[in-house]
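Re: How this chain folds, sequence and tokenised backbone to follow
Notation: Tokens come from a learned vocabulary of local backbone shapes, not from coordinates.
Start of record: The labelled sequence and token lines come straight after this line.
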Amino acid sequence: MKKELSFITVIGKDKKGIVAKISNLLYKNNINIEDISQKVMEGFFVMAMLVETSGYKKPQANISKELEKIGKELGLKIQIQHENIFKKMHRV
């Protein structure tokens, strides 16, 4: 089975539970974290995740809405983008 990869980015004021909330949502939706990078810069939390979504059987818009919901709850900007966006940008 071919991997389906997406990037999740998270930016906002640092607080407890950000990684836990997001990783729990991914786990419940059968989405695997392939790679993760995070840093706190002057009180702001910045995270990038590469996730494997082939186990997620719903449209990506569904998980995007769930991530946005967490973002609103925690005061963060959370986005998910499929790897194809980046591949097409660099095919010119």
Q: What stands out?
A: The chain has one domain: 5-89. The chain has three helices and four strands. The two ends are 28 Å apart (CA to CA). The longest helix spans residues 60-74.
